[in-house]
Amino acid sequence: MLAGVGAKVALVCLTLSLAGVSLQGAETTKRPRDLFAELLGKPQSEIDAKISMAWSRLFAGDDQNERVYFPVGGDMAYVADIGHQDVRTEGMSYAMTICVVLGKHQEFDRIWRWAKTHMYHENGRYAGYFAWECSFDGTQMDPQPAPDGEEWFATALLFAARKWGNGPGVFNYQAEADRLLRDMRRHRPGVPESLFSGTEKQVVYSVDGVSATFTDPSYQLPGFYEIWARWGDPEGQAFWRDAAVSSRRFFRKVAHPLTGLMPECCGFDGKPHRGDLGDFRFDACRTLANVALDWAWFGRDDWSVVQSNRVLGFLKTQGHPCPNQFSLAGKPLSDVDSTGLDAMASVAGLAADPAIARPFVQYFWDRPIPSGKWRYYDGLLYFLALLETSGRFHPVVN
Questions:
Q1: Catalytic annotation on 150?
Q2: Rounded distance, CA 204 to CA 21, Å?
Q3: Structural domain includes residue 13
Q4: 196 DSSP β-pair partners
Q5: Taking the CB of residue 189, how many other CB atoms lie within 10 A of it?
Q6: Which domain holds residue 235?
Q7: pLDDT tens for each residue of 203-216
Q8: What's the CATH number where 363 sits?
């Protein structure tokens, strides 16, 4: 039976193990916060049951109305965008993240094998990257990469290497992550712009032509770049540290000074695009979580607190449920709400003042698990937000 110091060490290890990452040779920067327990008073048994139910519905539920995860043969699986009838790197990488946090090793490997078999470019114009969109049979519908997929793939692989160790071939998670990170930052002869601008050290919208000259704020993940600088791509550590700094500075430029809203697309200088891409729409809701998760993990920039309070304060003025799309100045552009926005607003609570965060955590807690035709995007954001708001998704860093 443990006693004294030994008992305290065991308790710390048990707490950190909720993140699903090995503790060997590492330490956490900040203890994960569980906002469901902290702000709503929910017991761990109830939180665990909510996460378990999300898995049973979205990964193992009814084919027609619930699940987005579909096994193929004996060793592969894809994550389906039901509404658009395709497979996207966004969803595949989100699902891998969910799997590694929850310790679902078999499902993780099935998704990764499908992605490497059908989406990955071994050579050619997009060598080292993934086709962002495929059909259910694996045929590539659009060979270009969408960098958020690569970003989440790399991070999920690094978590997997620490949780499960490395296997042979594509299951050498560390080697796969290192290779992907090198390709994401390197300019190669005869290959288009890399997924990160070498001068701006920011993620690009895509690699072809004008798409490599601007960014999508929801692709900006400074917390991930900090992880990469510690866990992967040894030759790129300085680059990834700089990318984290650049991304945080970018957020300050692009967030609207009154509402805190960010656009779908903008220049590296933060200037929004014209038209729909300059508004706060479906991609942009993820910026709420990106800022707050970086703060929860590393606490590098106090502005993250100011920003999270600002954007949640604006959403509060809209009542609940509130529209899911706005101009940056706050004009509603929709008359419907969405689970995805509620999910990301809940994660923003990790950086916001408790009094401001609490109602948004409650709104999210009360949301049902998405189902039906459009369950893919809202469902995956819902699941990620469960893990983030509850403190389950958290790194142990060197």
A1: no
A2: 29
A3: no
A4: 203
A5: 4
A6: 29-389
A7: 999 998 899 999 99
A8: 1.50.10.10
- Round to whole Å and give the CA distance between 161 and 269: 35
Q: Please state whether beta strands 76-81 and 140-142 pair in parallel, antiparallel, or not at all (unpaired).
A: unpaired
Q: Please give the pLDDT value at position 110.
A: 98
Question: How sure is the predictor about 193, in pLDDT bands with cuts at 50, 70 and 90?
Answer: confident
Cα 377 to Cα 341: distance, rounded to the nearest angstrom:
11
Reported as a single tens digit per residue, the pLDDT across 278-291 is 999 999 999 999 99
Asked, for residue 40, whether it belongs to a domain, the answer is: yes
Residue 17 Cα distances to 159, 260, 280, 365, 390, angstroms? 12, 34, 36, 23, 13
Q: Is residue 23 part of a domain?
A: no
In total, how many domains does the chain have?
Answer: 1
Residue 20 CB neighbour total at 10 angstroms: 22
| Residues facing residue 266 across a β-bridge | 215, 272
User: pLDDT at position 285, please?
Assistant: 98
pLDDT tens digit sequence for 101-126 = 999 999 999 999 999 999 999 999 89
Which of the residue ranges 27-41, 55-69, 106-120, 362-376 would you say has the lowest mean pLDDT?
A: 27-41
How many whole angstroms separate alpha carbon 275 and alpha carbon 253?
A: 19
pLDDT tens digits for 60-96? 999 999 999 999 999 999 999 999 999 999 999 999 9
Q: Report residue 185 CA to chain centroid gap.
A: 19
Structural domain contains residue 4 = no
Which of 81, 86, 90, 178 is catalytic? The answer is: 90
Q: Which of 66, 176, 178, 283 is catalytic?
A: 283
CB 367 within 8 A of CB 360: no
Q: Would residue 122 show up in a list of annotated catalytic residues for this protein?
A: no
C-beta of residue 130 within 8 angstroms of C-beta of residue 118? no
